[in-house]
Design goal:
single chain; 216 residues; mainly alpha; 8 helices; 77% helix
Length: 216
Amino acid sequence: MIFNLVADPMIINTDYLAAIFTDPSTYIVIAEFIGMCATITGSFLFTRKSKDAILYAFYAFFIGNIAMLFMSVLTGVLSLSFQMIFFFATSIYGVYKLQSNKSIVTAMIAISLVVMATALYVLNVYPPKDLTYYRPLYEIAAAVLAVVGSFYLAYEDKRRLIAFALFFIADLLFVAVAVQNSLLFFGIQSVFFLYTSSAGFLLHKKRLSGAIISPT
């Protein structure tokens, strides 16, 4: 309990609060939760027919990348860190292709550089301690598949189908990683991504066949 109910129910137990906010796992859960919400929102938007929805999806991915980068730094999962760095590039590229206001792209690049510099600082000054995460080889494979798929995601032709297929395989692997490391929100996110990658694949296939007319 945060409140000291024994002495006075209205007095905050500062020692307990200090323990919470100095525990790295607290920030891991917070970053994991924010990343889950942002990336699930982005994935849902990406299955919509509107180009504006896809643009906002890239914005959501960008926010999710920031949160997941810090989660990976705090846990010491470097393969996920490298994946998030590549995802900065792909989300910015997606915005660049869809956003007419290029100053927004410049701002996103600047934010990415600041975030990555901050992440490196956190990693050097506050390295992960007492956190043992299982890092199987297929975690690296999933990161590579997700990075390659994200580059194809910005295209509107058959290459986007390849992106969704790669995402589906990567998400299956990430579900296993989440289960082995007890990463609840990351696991929920990966399971939801299995749905969005499947839905995105089917929707875009219909769009290419002419069953769905994309709005201009």
